[in-house]
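Tokens as discussed.
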């Protein structure tokens, strides 16, 4: 069974593509905090994910 690639893109254009949803969540949360001073929940980030 192959894993499907997922993607999450910030409104600023920053994008993450990975097979690992937890990796995407961590990277997007760190980006949102570090670059925008915003906190995002796991649910927030998972809601942004689409198939890549």
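Sequence:
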């Amino acid at each position: 069974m192959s894993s499907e690639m997922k993607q999450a893109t910030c409104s600023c254009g920053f994008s993450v593509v990975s097979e690992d949803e937890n990796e995407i969540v961590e990277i997007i949360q760190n980006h949102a905090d570090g670059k925008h001073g915003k906190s995002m929940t796991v649910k927030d980030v998972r809601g942004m994910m689409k198939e890549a």
